[in-house]
Write the structure tokens for this entry.
Amino acid sequence: MRPFDYHRATSPADAAAAAGTAGTTIIAGGTNLLDLMKLEVMTPERLVDINRLDLGEITAADDGGLRIGALVRNADLAADPRVRRDYPVLSRALLAGASAQLRNKATTGGNLLQRTRCYYFYNTAMPCNKRQPGSGCGAIGGVTRLHAILGASPHCIATHPSDMAVALLALDAVVEVEGTEGTRRRVPLSGFHRLPGDTPHVETVLQPGELITAVTLPPPAGGRQLYRKVRDRASFAFALVSVAAVVTLDDAGRIDRAALAFGGLAHKPWRDPAVEDLLRGEAPSDALFDRAADRLLADARGQGGNDFKIPLTRRTLKAVLAEATRETAA
Ligand code: SF4
């Protein structure tokens, strides 16, 4: 690990101002960042520690939703009685991620900003447009088991590793951001992460000097909430495919609303409104679920080593929809 300067932030504005200078990185839980620094994938000249800021509370929002401070630990968020009761898909997604030790340390804001687990991103002997723009992509033509089937580009085929963000996307979460001078803005999570395009090193819409201060959830949507994660081993593994579902039925048993978000498929948590439109107002059936999978996967492209994700995603989506509609209809 290379030497770096250390600054303990005294306020969100102080952290934002410090983070706006070149070579500076914010540290909270550090569960991903410290690994990246040890491997010299990231070599910040200065760390801004935000752990002493007052961003660690979960509070009721004025509209009946929930406001989750950026420093709320993943373990605390998963165990919160309001989350378990009203947003169970979020609790389940959190508990499907990492290990108990990491969840005790990892934060809400940091979870959103964690970096891809592309093998070549972590191997500094290999080209990587995300680590070193313009150097090429070592993954294309290489080992691609974890890589994207949707939204990839010739410059990067990495996936976003978060489980939490997939559930938050299905719940229509909004990210609160504070900049220097105390300026604030709210960014829907659906617009927070970016596809790689020709700038895969730019992963979110955060601007230099902006800090995540909270994530807000709308009032509880009810319905049946599921999180299904398919991975290579039962714990401490990233998703090959994951599905977060919030499904409500009408009195006739037809699908009133199906909010569906996917992990392991793309450079960002993936949500396709056309799939949800296709399901709305329809009676659940195997044929309907096949049509939804057809729509979701219409533009899917494998890289060889991850071709299996296309049929796996179909099976996982269909199983989740069958369970969600069967349970809510009962
Ligand atoms: Fe780097 Fe993206 Fe290629 Fe992985 S897929 S080597 S992160 S450019």
